[in-house]
Amino acid sequence: MVALILSSPDMADDLSRYLRPREGGGRQFEIAVKGAHCANCLAKIEAGVKGIAGVGDARLNLSSGKLTVSWSGDSVSPHAILRRVRDLGYDAQPFEAEAVLDAGAREGRLLLRCLAVSGFATVFIMGLTDSIWYSSDMTAVTRRLFFWLAGAVAIPATLYAGQPFFRSAWAVLAKGRTNMDVPISLALLLSLGLSVYQSASGAAHTYFDAASMLTFLLLIGRYLDFRLRDRAQGAARHLLALQSLLARRFRPDGALETVSARDLAPGDHVLVASGERVPVDGVIEEGDSDIDVSLVTGESLPHRAGRGARLEAGSVIIGPAVTLRVTARVENSLVADLARLLESGQQTRSLYVSLADRAARAYVPFVTILSALVWLGWTLSGAAAATAITNAIAVLIITCPCALGLAVPAVQIAATGRLFRRGVFVKSGNALERLAEADTAIFDKTGTLTLGAPVLANKADIPPGTLERAARLARASHHPLARALAVAAGDGPAAREVQEVAGAGLECRNDAVERLGSAVFVGATGGHGSELWFRSGAAPPVRFAFQDQIRSETRATLAAMAARGIAIEMLTGDRQDAAAELARDAGIAVWSADVTPQAKAARLMQLNAAGHKTLMVGDGINDAAALALAHVAIAPGSAADVSQLAADIVLRGGGLDGVVEALDVARKARRLAVQNFIVAALYNVAAIPLAALGLVTPLIAAAAMAGSSLLVTLNALRLTIGTGR
Fold first, then answer.
1. Average pLDDT over every residue of 590-599
2. pLDDT confidence of residue 5
3. Which of the residues are catalytic?
4. Which of 140, 212, 410, 425 has fewest C-beta within 10 Å?
5. CATH of region 16-95
6. DSSP H/E element including 627
7. CATH topology classification for 453-549
8. What is 246-332's CATH topology?
């Protein structure tokens, strides 16, 4: 999807509001680029911007049309970056997130109009030329009349329908540069010009049909590419749309004013009514309401939130209105971060994409020189001028590397789009390539294979009424085991006048002294593991045992990965007995307990040195080093921030449901990418000599070129359907 290009701001305008702080220091500037459609454009823009003194990195996402430029300090002017991109022949404006929704619709409407015009012209012209080809008694005058009728339709139709190519070619030529649309435009115009000459000279053949059909087939390929990108970006656009464009902010005098969500700043107070989406991340200052957080956590049921609760942008208030204190700007909200997460997944280029980039980058000079040599060769051999030009045009058309340029990016976009819709966020484009190579999976235990929170394990052994009495005390504490006990008992009142004895437990004096805490605190003997003891008066103490419960999907996930040839290993810092129980329950044969973060990292380095392609799945801060050292890393959505930053793939929510899905998609994407690459390469190798030897007409060349692009695109679309491996 190409981002909407807003009206050009005066170069003297202050662009500071478009600059974002970058992690680790420095600035980041996001630009909407229009007219970049191929790998050659991408490489040229990135190299040009990186050439500006002080710029550290420049990454263009062809899917969204967003160019992200980062640098350290204040040495780079955003105006200089805009000028550089425009000097390269592309339209560039500061990126506005809200404009993304309209951009795809406008591009799609233009392509559809052009497609309709070229399609009509192709059908009409083919009808005329068929009459010429299959009529044995047509006079020369009638044939010339039919040619001129075909030209009267083909010339205006091709000039109109070829706008996407002509505009792009003119923009770069005006700057003294080239891109892939230059030879395409040249082929279209030469086909029309040659056909006019042939018609005027009374020749037996013209190529009006080739010009119109070439335009039609090229537009089909470009529209399919657009739809593929649009479909992959649909989830990200939906996320951006979920950010309310308007918000009701409290003025200092207490009155409400309606403002754009982009104008909200941390510290502002906004009113969010029932049925409205939260516009930005914030904290509830007043009110108590039910919140639909399905976007944020994937939970299907709403939860209750009151004063002090944090709400993320995109959540829906389904109860009474609440007053929210803003904690982040709209561009720094969770929703915007998720959209950027998808974009970054399509931005990093893998080995296959890099190979395709280099091949496509050499295309324009190669094919231009080759076409000139073909024309010269045929001319020197004594062929007619029309024959030499026709063969040169065929070379221009048939060698267009559209298929090569689409071969791998189409698969990558389809793969990241499919995974995004399944709640799997790919942070780097080559992560899927690396995941497909994984042969050994290392899992953390607590919070990854287990829920990471204590659960009451002996509820059935608790005497009647004891659980509720103990829970009255537990509700007065924030201790993890006390909270787990309160959850097991369900909703209910909390005890009053509870005293907390540091390091021991809770005490409440009513009709009888009640205590909840350690074994020593309540006067019990023994005691071990994760437990709480409760005693009421002189009654015998009651033990509440807790354990970290295995996730419901853990066994199925590990079994599915083992079936796919992945060796499973668990590394945990937990106790030996807890690790052994979990390993036995989950069917893990290789595991280690009491493992320090340094030991985890050392184990990853040992496996890497042995030639294994490791997949690390972990959620804790202590897993960050191992995640960074792994060949590819996955973190649940509940993982610590540092672990999510170190991971290549992040799962929505805290479960493991997306691990197997990501592995299957990665492996299928690798197969499809290799297939596409081979098809595109073989096509170009076979097509060049055929066109150069005059064995292919421009019409057949157009069909063959468009067919190759269509083939690789449809092959990539296989990733968006089915669940097969």
1. 85
2. 32
3. 444
4. 140
5. 3.30.70.100
6. helix 624-629
7. Calcium-transporting ATPase, cytoplasmic domain N (3.40.1110)
8. 2.70.150
